[in-house]
Every structure is written in structure tokens, then in C-alpha cells.
Model the fold of this input.
Amino acid sequence: MTGAGATPRTRCPEPDVSGAAGALHVATGAQVRRILAAELKPHLVRFCASLVLLIAGSALGLVTPRLMGGLVDLVRDGHPLLGHTGTTAVWFAAGAMAAAVVAMAVLTGFGYVLMAGTVERVIASLRERVIAGGIGMTAERIEEVGVGDLVSRTTDDVAEMTRAVNQSLASLAIGGFAVVVTIVGMALLDWRFLGVAVLLLPVYALFVHRYRRHAPDAYLCQRMEMAQRASGILASLRGLRTVRAFNLQASRRSGIGDHSWRAVELGVWIRILINRLFGGVNLAEYLGMSGVLVIGWFLVDHGEVTVGVVTTAALYFLRLFQPIGMLVVLIDPLASAAASLRRVVGVIVEPDSRPAEPAGVVSGIPAGTAPRLRIEHLTFGYPGGRTVLDDITSEVAPGTVTALVGASGAGKSTLGALIAGCRPVESGRVVIGTTDASTLTAGQRARAVCLVTQGAHVFAGTLREDLLLARPGADDPALVDALRRVGAGDWVDALPEGLDTVVGERGQVLGPVEAQQVALARVLLIDPPVVILDEATAEAGAGGGAALEEAAWNVVRGRTAVVIAHRLDQAARADEVWLMESGRIVERGSHRELVEQGGAYADLWAAWSLGR
Done:
């Protein structure tokens, strides 16, 4: 910090509300209002009913101060109260106060429950939509923005928004209605008591404005720093071996520590803003009560109101302390929730441009056939980097297997990702059968082309649930058959509960070979006409390599397939081999033809075969 009265040294950039420049959207106010209005619409009657009950409960809260003022006039001047005097008036007043308190509690309680139920439903829907939005993002978009920001929004921001809204929104409504109703009650006693509101409004406005000028951006910046910290931690954990191999622990720790410290600085700055705000509220309360007593003294001195009326006005203003304090307390969590809400809604509006998912089979790619795969003038480069693929034109014959070989960085995996639709084609096109792949939706593309990489993921749940992701509704014989065709029959039979065995996190841990067999079994269940294997057997090691290799060939048999080969014996089994270099296909032909040509592939094969 630069001092008690200064902002922290840590400054964050203006939040990006466009989703450009490698950042997820931070929703605008209009986008937030649109999403909230859409989510609230089905619950509008329930929400309005809660507002009516809360307003009625707040109005009943004026009964006790009004009767207390009447008791003062009864004792001091003998004025009748509720049509009675003496002890009878006191008993009637006490009964009315008790009835008003009970009715207020009942109405406020029902209103609170109705509002809380509405809020829970809206939050639950928002939570589902933000998860769906995150899952719906394309792989290249997630890579562009960083997984840390997305994880932070779908966890930290959703949790913060849920906590703050659940605890604050109903209290905000109760406090707000109490303030409005009490001010109206003071005006009904004598309009000159509104002078107190005129006196206090600039004071409250000044301190709240000072808080609101800095706090929302401070909270948003703090969330951004937390997201950067999460991204750094996740990246370090994923690349832990590399970090240790290159002795990068200190630099990685330093970067994460910088983001953590800036988040702490912003947290302290936020606390200073809160303390200033409460100091202003205390000043306003002192000035307000003084104003009520001064105005009341003037009115009583001129005989325009009774002492009981002034007592009522003072009790009304005293009654404002709690709701105003409540509102001030809520400014902080609501400011934090507002920042989180903008980030959460940013994830929801992010995939708005995705095409709708029509039902039905893939147009132009008949089921059960192996289509021709054509690549026409395909050019691609990553943002800010060199061209990875340079005007590639080639073709995979129907029902054949083509192996891609070449040095690391030659563009093999990028080409596979473009064919599978994991990345958008910038220039050129991919044609599956007679269908331009760019015209397919994500769902259609997923049913037409399956990409299997070396990092297979096993979802937490039963093995049956994991497989049904590929073909919902498939029966057990179909699931077991798929597993047996990829060589997983023996270990599946040994599972304690068969297909009902919980696998993945907190369940039966599957090794790299077993996890890849599950992934290959999913491909068989989807039954796509085109399959891309991107080093899908690389994680098998020496022990399970042969079994997993055979499983992979069982999957591609009868389909149009592209195999990104990490071992040249895979290329030897393929119908055709493409040797890639610097984003181009420099040699192509069968394994035998390329070896006989004596070119670069032949040299690779000779080096590979040496000593084997």
C-alpha cells in the first residue's frame, strides 16, 4: 500500500467485455440484466408475491413506534389512545403491539421463504448454464483464454455469487422496504421531518458513491488476480515434470506469489473502503438523530405537534439504524457478487454464436459407410505464431488407413485436429464424403469424426456411465462387446461389480492402457465413419503396447482413418504414408513404395529398424 488514504499500487487493466484479446467475456450490465430477466421470468409471480409480503411486513413494523408515541401523549397530556384512556388504553396498545409484531414476523417470514426459493431456482439455473457454457467452448477458445480463468469462474465466482445472493438478496429487500416505509411514516407524522432525509441523503450518497467508485473494480481486479493465480498453479501442476527438469520452481513460485500478493493488496484496499463507508454511516446516524430532535423541539415549541409525535419520529428514525446498517453491510458482499456475476454471465454469453444442434443423422455422410476424406488447400497458423500447415491438398481413400509421420512440430497433430473439427479451418476446407465439414455443427461433426489422443480421460462414475456417454441407451451386451473388441475383456471381468464398478476419481483407478481401451471402446459405440488416432497408443509403454496397438487397429478397421504415428511400425501397417515436414506433405505412398524410393522416409525407416 502507498498509504492509508491511497489506492494500492496494484492496478488491473480495464476489464475486457468483448471476449477479444485472449480473454473470456466480462458481461456488460445490459447482458447481465437480460440473462437475469430471462431466468426470473418463469418465477415472476412468486417473486412479486414475496415483495408484497415483505412490504406489508415492513409497514406493520411502524405500529409499535406509533403506539409508543401515543402512550407518551396518554401519560403526559391524557390524550386517548385507540379510543381509550387510562389502564385500558395501555392494555389495548400492548395487545395491538403484540399482534403487529406477530403479523410482521409471519408476513416477513413467508416473504423471505418465497424470495429465497425464487433466488435458489434462478441461481441453480445460472449455475447449470455457466457449466454448459464452459463445456460448450471450443478447444482453441479454452487454450486461448487459459483454463485457469474458466476454472475460476465456474468455481470461485459461482460460489461467491451463490453465497452472497443467498445471504443478502432477501435481507436487501427487507432492509430497503423498511427504510422506504419508515420514511413515508415520518412524512405522515409531519412533512417537515423529511428535512432529516434531505440532510442525510447527501451524506449517505457521498460515502456510498466513494465506495462504489472503487469497490466493484477492486473486486473485479481481485477476481482477475485469483484467476491468474489459479492458471499458474494449474499450469505448474500439469507440467510438474518439466518444471522440475528445468529447475523452474523458483520462477513459477514467484509468478504465482506475485498474483497472490496483488490479490492480498486489493483485499486490504477493499477493507479500507469498507471502514470508510461505515464511518460515514455512523456520522449520518448522529446527524440524523440530532436533526429529528431539533425539528421536533421546534415543532413542539410552536405547538404544532405533541411530544408523543416527536417520540414516534425519533423511534422511527432509530428503527432506521438497523435496516440502513443492513444495507450498508450488504453493499460489500453484493459488490463482490456483482463482480462475480459479470464474470459468470460472461461465460454464459460466450458461446451464443455457436450454431444450433439439429436432430438427425449427419447430412451427406450415410451411416455405416466409410467416406472419402479430402483436404483442399489447407493452411493454418496459431495466433501470433508461424504458419503450421502450408497449403496442404491430399486425399484419404474410403475405408483406408493413412499414417502421418514426421518430426515433432511438422504439423501432424494440427492436421488431425483440423480434420476432427477441434480447431477452425482458416483457409481451405475438409470434405467428408460430399459434405464440407465446415457446414456441420459440433454435434454432427462429433458423430462423423472421432479423435483419440494419447491423453484419454476416464470420467468419475461407473464404467457403464462412462461408456454410455458415447451411446446413450446402449444395452450391456453392446457395452461388453465394445470392451472385448479393444482387448479389455479380462480386466473388466475382474472388476468387483462389473460395469457397475465406480472408476476414475474416488473409484477404481485405471492405468494408461485401461483408460485408452475405454476411450477406444467409446469410439466403437459411436461408430463414426472417420477416425483420427493421434499417438493413441503412446502411453502404453512396452508392457501394454502390443495389446493396445491391436485394439487401435480393430477400431480403424473398415473406417476411413488417419493415424498420427509415433512408431514407424504403425506406418508400415497403413495403406498409405504421408511424410510431413514444416507443414507440408513432402512424401506420400505406401510403406513399401517410400522405402524403395530411398528418400527421407527410407532414412527414417532405416534408423528406426536399426537394432530392432
The chain has two domains: 29-350, 373-609.
